[in-house]
């Protein structure tokens, strides 16, 4: 090859080498820059951690009868007993302890006072009130740090108070609604004896309204100035909770001037259980315990929760967490007619009576899957799913429609835990996954349906029946097929549930169980899931504490 021909090839090779070298250089610089950024991030995190773990105060206090070396950082308080040197040279292992600041909800100065003395007195030390976990329950505990020095004690007191103010989610002023008629009419007693002392200890101010009628809380919420409060508290059962949840979202819509689209509630809601089942409370606390519920509020444990909107013919009926059509609605309708009975007997009576007259509903069921592929409740949820997606924006999804006979249809955006169903009526949904569980129980024999119901109180298997469908949905439409004929009240014969559906007169309303409240609706109902529409004081719970059982079936 001649020299003139080799020259362009040599230049081309050199150019290629230069390009590769430049690419390697750029890649190396990029990797170096990324490495430096990672190192800076690690250094920043270590710096934050070191700041948090930096000793803020160091002092000596007596815990019980022994002196302890006490250290306070921005995240925790630790204590180690001071062990004097042993002449024999033997030293024991000191039993140290610690409590996280996030678990401390109050700090007070201890003083010695004579009988009848209301103020003053010599300083004894500092008392820390903190929350101890015992299973699903939260319990109040106290740590006494004794030191007779007034200056030393007040330094610790002021520093601890300042650190505790850093927990911004903790409320300082609450609007409290108490339903004195809920369950055994114990709501006022529960609040006064178990909740009010904790609020007072945590320096939480309250504005209390004792409701006088159904809808009272809703009317107050529409008028009051919510910007004065840090949260709302409901002392009552599921009916009171449903009313206040609906009121909070409705008020947010009014304030945002958004009548068409639901708006996220601005204030969190705390629930003090005082009802017969307390489904929503159990779903965020795991136990029906007023102290546990109050401590979740005091400590500012916030949990975002999905809600559903229920509308008929374009008109909003209400917001809620769950709805039952068919067996659940008819059972509640019967129970409401026996309000003079004790709640447990009334519930069992309605259950047995509805089972005795068990018949399916003839209706058209349509649903919009929460994901593109139809999936069962037992399929592992996609963790990368966009949980803030609005179901109304899923216009490209196609509705799945079935028509037939159904004994029960349930739509639940929360697990609906309760002592009767520890793992919930919808055990494989969660509080804020942006979807709801649709459980459709098709027509079957009474004995098979009872087997299905009984399995809710056990661990699993309530959906392992051929007549039970489960879907993860973002929207559901239920359209009852009204036919000319006799109503349920006119028909006293039991009939065969496999062949005889309920026959309704034209214009008849259908009973719905929405969050434990009876709602009569005559037309098609559209249910849409709205992700994280409300915030409740509590946390995600997998299973509720079981303490009761139903012996009626």
From TrEMBL:
GO terms for biological process: sphingolipid metabolic process. Residues 16-30 have a biased composition (Basic residues). Residues 169-314 form the DAGKc domain. One of its GO terms (molecular function) is lipid kinase activity. It comes from the Eukaryota. GO terms for cellular component: membrane. InterPro entries: ATP-NAD_kinase_N, CERK_C, Diacylglycerol_kinase_cat_dom, Lipid_Phosphate_FormReg, NAD/diacylglycerol_kinase_sf. Residues 387-397 have a biased composition (Acidic residues). It holds the Pfam family DAGK_cat. Residues 1-41, 378-399 are annotated as: Disordered. This is DAGKc domain-containing protein. The gene is CERKL.
